[in-house]
Amino acid sequence: MPESHGQSAGSTSAVSPPAIPAPESATPRSARGESRSDERRFRMYTAVVLTSGILAAIAVSSWLPFEGGVELLWIGPLLAVAFLLAEQLGINVDVRSGISWTISFTEIPLVIGFFIAPFEVVLAAHVVAGISTLLARRVSGRVLYNAGAFLLEITSAFAIAGLVKQAMGAEGMPWVAALAGTLTAPLASTLLALAAVRVLRRRMRVGTALRLTGRILVVGFVNASVGLSGYLVIANEPAAWPLVLAVFLGLAALYWAYSDLLREQRDMEALSDVSLMVARSGQQAAARPASRTDEFGRGVDIDEWVTIAERVKDQLAAGRVVLRLRLEPDDVMRMVVVGEPLPPGDAVADDPLMRLPGAHVRHFRITEANPDVRAALLDRGAQEALVVPLRSANQLLGVVEAHDRLSRWRGFGKYDVQLLGTMASHLATSLDNRRLLATLRHDAYHDPLTGLLNRPGFRQVAKDPLRERDGAVVLRVDLDVFSTVSDALGYAWADRMVIAAGRRIRDALGPQVPLARLEGASFAALLVDHTPQQAHDTAERLRAELSEPYPVDRLTVEANAMVGYAATVVEENDEPVDVDGMLQRADVAVRATRGGEEVRGYVPSMGQIFMRRFQLVTQFRQSLEDGQVSVHYQPKVSLPGRQVQGVEALVRWQHPEFGKLDPDEFVPAVEAAGLIGALTEFVLEQSLRRVRKWLDEGLRISAAVNLSVRNLADADFPAKVVAALNRFDVPAKLLTFELTESGVMADPQRALPILRELHELGIVLAVDDFGTGYSSLAYLRQLPVDQVKIDKSFVLGMGTDLGDLAVVRSIVELGHSLGLTVVAEGVEEDVARDQLEAMGCDVAQGYLISRPLSEERLEAWLQARTTRSPGRQAETVLTLLS
């Protein structure tokens, strides 16, 4: 007769819930709720089965009254013993749905019972044998259900046998009726078990259930036929019992061999299932968003391991499986229990089963173990256990324990040991891979210097809280000392400051606040359930703490912090703002602090400024093509001769929506967007075209074009300049490139070779805004330049500030000592021009001479304010009229 076993039961026609809840510490709340609901449903089903069994037994007993006397006293115990032996010799077959079925030989004593004992005796023998088997296997939690199932099996068998007997009209028990009744018992057991699977909401396909029922009927028919044939042979020929016994032993051997084949197939399927489960679990852990992890990137994935433990338990037919796992590096050992709950007070600190060497499966029985192991088994409430450590490179990753095999009287066997060892090897490999993935994931989402989140990590952590929108605030903190410390002391010292600043922010905000280092000395934090006022107070407190001096080794570095924040409640529409949008708003607020306040909250008007810059950048190329961008020219004259030496080309943008745009507004944005190359090429083309026209008119006027640091990083820039000079047939000496000291010295290894190449072409190179950058003789001597331009701030202050006057005189003398032409910008008064002329300054440029002019106005200016005089090489020289 088939038996059905769940996760914690094993007996004739017994079924138990496929998922006994694990302890509160190891089972998710949703799983505990579902398990309790399943238990309630199964208790109701048990009551129905037991009540039906009692009523059916009473009805069949009334229909088939007891016949017999004292001579039957020996038959009852004999049948009970026969049923017990049939139970113990069962062959286990696991079903993938989580239900364990056992092929037993209970049909043999049952079919014989039809001929030698009345209904009540067979029923009592079967119930006693079944319940005794359950108690021997410590399956006390399902006794009532199984008792009801035993009653229904036997009552349905005798009911069908009685009906067949009445239909045939024969005296005694005909073999056809006995065979029909015997086949009814396993069918009833199967239907009850399938109903239990349905009650417990475990999935089983209809096709699987039909195939299983068909196989059980086939096995039941073979068993019943063997028993019936044996009884009939012995009844007619008592001396034939050795032959019947031989047939029975042969059948048992065939069943046993078939069981081994099935066991190998089931083990391979189980191993494949577990491998897929752990692989899928690892993939889910790797793909799980950081919002489901703690600050250190550890995933919450106990649910997957509960499923894996259940599969291992099903395959081993164990009463309990315990997984003790260290899921992540430096993590605590976590415990997952499926099956019978562990007794309270399970301690593993000095547990001998946790200190097993190697990675081999150990089989412990309480009757054979040493005192320490026996005590450990008693603490677990187990009679036997399979224990295998999970190791990788001699590091303990976890321990797998399987307690008390349910399906066989002899306990765990060699196949169980082999299967658990192979599964453990897969689990250890999976854990090792997961730990590696956890390390890679941690590195991908964390800053290696500070250990804080990086930008991608912050994006993942903040995504869900910001989706809630109300009460979420993103803080951005910038230290303005990072670049200064890097230049003065080196990046190692700057890194120490960043680490110290990160610790201060962490201490100020607490360990639960997501905190990230974005780049350099910029940090971001996410505040949840904060009003804008609370966020402002937090930002003020944070800025005050970060602005305290930093003791770095033997130095104390002064620092200043700027904090900007953006709250979700400032949205002017109902569109959600993602993490990047909030970070951008906080960054806009930080930039707004440069106006004086050191803590600013984002307001929509701030975004309009940057939105305008973004719009300008996106429209710039089209504006070049549409003629909105033009070049104006500011004349430069020599001192003291007042001859027009050249012009400086200055870009202008007449925007159709914003009107005239100042170069200081759009040039930095264009440069940051990587479009400065197109702008430089445009200005160079216009300037060379203008110089070519002047040459055609007999005028020798040079043009100066400003270069960006990005131009000096372009290795192809000199070749582009040569192509432009050749295209317009302009001598290289009539082209001047102006560049700032800071732009050159930001990356001198890349800039100096480009400058030398331009200088060798004959192009004039000028240092612009001299006096505001590095301004040292050492730097100036490194540059292959021909001119130095005094910054206009010094020229404008010469008349009122003796210091500015001294600076200008020093620059003129320094330039001349190096053989350089000195150009003064910002000349707006006659006094300044006269002072520069007295110092020996070579060239003047400023509003006193002319403002920047368009091409048409420049032509008019040249005609109205200059006089032509014959120059050398048949060229005309323009002299400014006094």
Automatic annotation (TrEMBL):
Residues 1-15 have a biased composition (Polar residues). Residues 1-38 are annotated as: Disordered. Keywords: Membrane, Transmembrane, Transmembrane helix. GO terms for molecular function: cyclic-guanylate-specific phosphodiesterase activity. The chain crosses the membrane at residues 42-60, 72-91, 111-136, 143-164, 176-200, 212-234, 240-258. CDD domains: EAL, GGDEF. Residues 470-604 form the GGDEF domain. Residues 613-866 form the EAL domain. PANTHER family: CYCLIC DI-GMP PHOSPHODIESTERASE PA2567, CYCLIC DI-GMP PHOSPHODIESTERASE PDEF. This is Diguanylate cyclase/phosphodiesterase. The lineage of its organism: Bacteria, Bacillati, Actinomycetota, Actinomycetes, Pseudonocardiales.
